[in-house]
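ok here's the first one, seq then struct tokens
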Amino acid sequence: MNISPSPLLPDVLVIEPRVFGDARGFFFESFNARVFGNLSGLHPQFVQDNHSRSARGVLRGLHYQIRQPQGKLVRVVRGTVFDVAVDLRRSSPTFGRWAGWELSEDNHRQLWIPPGFGHGFVVLSESADFLYKTTDYYAPEHERCLRWNDPSVRVQWPVDGLDLKLSEKDQRGLPLADCECFE
């Protein structure tokens, strides 16, 4: 397994597992607490696993919980998404910056998104199955949403030609200037 900090958001880690494959298929270890801790210096305690399936053009995010913030270990097991993290920690030198990665069933790439970041993705394939572990429980009363297309953040979503589908909650996302952020 290779773990490296993201160039634009060093607290976000890009994880590339070692995949063993042959004509029969493949195998890889998607998470090992000891290896993850040894390579990253982090020892998250995961309390919840989530699985979402979304159709092409579905854009989810940018979500975060202002209380009970969640660290997330994310990956795609079917299809392809463009995944985005935005630093929402006011005291951080990278506050308001974003970074994005393609996650797919073929590249097996994973991301560690620490607490204090907004997170979202858009589905680029016909559909995608997105799996993620969280370090705290879902708390809808504490959930917030940064507007996916906030001009002050300027996420460069690869959405040309996509018929975007957003939930009502995501359509009501707030601009960064109006968001409740972390200290």
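and now the second one, same deal
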Amino acid sequence: MEEEEIVACGKLIDTSVIIEGKDVAKLYNQGYYGELVSDEKLILNPVEALILLERNKIKVIDNGGNEYSFNDLMKYLEKVDKEIWIKYIVYRDLRSRGYIVRQGPGEVAEYRLYERGAKVGKDVAKYLVGIVEEGKPFSLTELDKITKAARSMGKELILAIVDRQGDITYYKVSRLEL
């Protein structure tokens, strides 16, 4: 099988990857990856950089010119975010199902999820995706908090439950008031 052509080279700055050049708009338009700052500058968050690196769409270098493999970048990011692997596998799974996935509103949910065929900037995200890892405590108070927040934003909440083998089960969560 032939490898896909590398589209762009990004520079690792802290935990973001900055891509500059003429291929930026092309890369962005292929799947709405990153935050398009200008026609020639794109900022990728960690999971976006990981998936594009895995798919050979980008290569990543640091200030010293050292190139990162997928595993190198994952190890680097794990030092900053212990949950990066779980976030990545959920992100990759949602992307492989054809969804546009953007970063979520911080503590409420990890991702915003657009319906298939949506256009970022024209359509709004319909769902918020929260991640729960099997074996880690998750209280009903926490669930109530993120459900209320999603509802106040006019979004539906989906919980991605990741088991110990990395398999993901999605549950739609709604609030029931008696």
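notes on #2: The first helix runs from residue 24 to 29. The mean pLDDT is 88.
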